[in-house]
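Q: How would the structure tokens look for this protein?
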Amino acid sequence: MRFLTGGEFESFVAAKPAAAIHFDAAWDNSYRPVVRRKMENAKENLDEQVNFGEVDCDCDPELAKSIPILNVPSVAYYRNGKLIRVLVGAEQNVQIHLERILRDA
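A: Here is the predicted structure in token form.
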């Protein structure tokens, strides 16, 4: 998973048919590892079609506001560079959401 900044964000989410971006903050010790693990698991199966990234909302607050990210952890899902949805919480199934996005493309 790649750590992203605002300058490279748009090209990164547009480089493959889909992208999943984990928005979080270093102080989120409870859920950050859970979502990272789900992202890594999805990456094992979907790496050729999906870019996986992470943004620390405290390090790049302007990027987080532009999405908008209302709470952490959140995962923003993209299809062909366009934002499809942002889901909040660690309970989401990243792989299933990405498979639906790819299927509906």
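The helical segments are 6-14, 32-46, 61-66, 94-103.

The chain has a mean pLDDT of 96.

Upvote if useful.
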